[in-house]
Design brief:
alpha+beta, Serine Threonine Protein Phosphatase 5, Tetratricopeptide repeat, 4-stranded antiparallel beta sheet, 4 strands, globular, disordered N terminus
Length: 360
């Protein structure tokens, strides 16, 4: 217990140091950009993103989500790398679609790259303009560096790799007694899934680890890594959805669970109404158990997020033209909980089977 407390304290201390360092790194990147040190600015932005990945900095990471692709795009455009800049600006426009740049501050190259990205996003007539933000952000997301890969340990099979492991593979790994044998097993595991063994890259592993890193950066919930959440699982197995949307969860959508719509029981309201104190005191007590904020289906606190996958993005053999994955957030129920309907479960199982077959 003492060792755990010490580790936890060190993690919290590291998180506090990183949190304090993030604004300094962001300012440094901005200053480097203004001084035309674009390569240095890109390096600082990479460092900023890396340090924001520390557990406990989820809110900071979320705040940086539109900032990082904007400054990366501006640097890349200034370095005459328009194709890369366009991808970064597409990710930025997913957050701020109406953004406009001041010509007195930004060069013609940067403004042109942003407008090019805007046109490329708007030219897709098959989906609404506001859709596809996850796909755009993922396209601009950098591949994780080899040194960022998680150190192997007994918990490897309980991490994102569990989506790929067959029951037999999982059992085999659990019976390995030492780090060397586990390392050798994992090396062979990825090698068996390499689609082009004649090349030095393992495209399957790189794509998998990119999805894991993206999920960790976007879907982390409290102490649960994003890649281990329901949204992370779907993203890792299927990639970014065709488009996604979010809407408040209202009481009309929960008619089968009326008893669960309120945080307080009728008895609590009756008790609060009993005489005692001034009229104002009584009114405050009643409002506390029956006023705004006591309904579990308030839109600000409860919502439904839907990911739409069209047929062309679904695994082979799926007979559906579109599959919708719904994630519900509600007090007393959970955060972004996948609604496990038949279509959804069937799609996920087929996706897992296809990924496992890649080793055959």
């Amino acid at each position: 217990m003492r060792r755990f407390a010490a580790v936890l304290a060190s993690l919290l201390f590291a998180a506090s140091l990183c949190a304090a360092n993030l604004p300094q790194l962001l300012q440094k990147a901005k200053d480097q950009f203004r001084l035309a040190a674009y390569k240095d600015s890109l390096a600082t932005l990479d460092q900023l993103e890396s340090e924001s990945m520390v557990p406990g900095l989820e809110k900071d990471r979320e705040a940086l989500a539109p900032i990082l692709p904007f400054y990366r795009g501006a640097c890349l455009a200034s370095l005459d790398r328009p194709a890369e800049a366009r991808l970064q600006f597409q990710a930025f426009l997913a957050f701020q679609p109406n953004a406009a740049l001041d010509p007195a501050v930004y060069s013609k190259k940067v403004i042109a790259a942003l407008e090019d990205a805007r046109k490329s996003v708007g030219s897709n007539k098959e989906v609404p303009a506001q859709s596809g933000s996850l796909a755009i952000a993922y396209a601009a997301f950098p591949k994780p560096r080899h040194e960022e890969r998680v150190t192997l340990g007994e918990e490897w099979a309980d991490g994102p790799a569990r989506f790929l492991l067959t029951p037999e593979e999982r059992l085999t790994f659990q019976h390995l007694a030492d780090p060397v044998s586990r390392s050798e097993y994992v090396t062979a595991f990825w090698k068996a899934r390499d689609p082009k063994p004649e090349t030095p890259e393992n495209e399957f592993r790189e794509e998998f680890e990119k999805r894991v890193a993206f999920a960790d950066s976007r879907f982390t919930q409290g102490e649960t890594a994003g890649s281990l959440t329901d949204r992370g699982m779907v993203f890792i197995l299927l990639g970014p959805p065709t488009y996604a949307g979010q809407k408040p969860l209202t009481s009309g959508e929960d008619t089968n669970d009326r008893a669960g719509l309120f945080l307080y029981r009728p008895a609590d309201v009756r008790i609060a109404s009993l005489p005692g104190g001034t009229t104002t005191d009584t009114a405050r007590k009643v409002d506390k158990v029956s006023g705004p904020g006591t309904s579990m289906n308030e839109g600000a606190r409860n919502w439904r997020e839907v990911w739409h996958y069209r047929r062309e993005l679904l695994p082979k053999g799926i007979p559906y033209h579109q599959v919708d994955f719904e994630f519900v957030t509600k007090d007393g129920y959970g955060m972004n909980v996948l609604q496990r309907e038949t279509q959804v479960l069937d799609t996920l199982e087929k996706a897992k089977a296809l990924l496992r077959q890649s080793a055959a």
